[in-house]
């Protein structure tokens, strides 16, 4: 497959970069990574949830420039439908698109209360009450999918776009020791053990830079 360029931000903090990278790897698209410096003002504002600057992720491939994770997912699915990034059956595929869109566009309280930080693990962490409905909704989505399609992934035996979209959420839950049902906890463990996730985490831990504002102990 053709070589492409994927623009990314911090692997430790940027959940959107993680999603874009996982989608490219699911598609089997070989990419050259271009990392935006963590001290870039726009990048820093985006990581601190102060500005949706849309710097990352951005996929450049054969003349196309594609940003936004769902746009990247659809672009890759069009290119490589045989890979199975979405379920083959129409109704199940619609379900996958729906839950992927929901996590893409919502859950602002969760994002602000539990920012992604792959370098740390808390034994306990006070969760802002406004984030609790988001957590409950995510658990409902996961339970419905796992019950309907049998797991271990949200739509069956292999990862799909939905798992790439929810992977940062699973990592947030692990980082902040969020109390979960056994089914949800098992799904988080599956995401954490995913070889692609382990590769990303290893790279994140090797990053020398930190954003002090995202390392505050509350």
From TrEMBL:
Residues 4-84 form the GST N-terminal domain. Pfam families: GST_C_2, GST_N_2. Gene3D superfamilies: 1.20.1050.10, Glutaredoxin. PROSITE patterns: GST_NTER. It comes from the Bacteria. One of its GO terms (cellular component) is cytoplasm. InterPro entries: Glutathione-S-Trfase_C_sf, Glutathione_S-Trfase_N, GST_Omega/HSP26, Thioredoxin-like_sf. CDD domains: GST_C_3. This is Glutathione S-transferase.
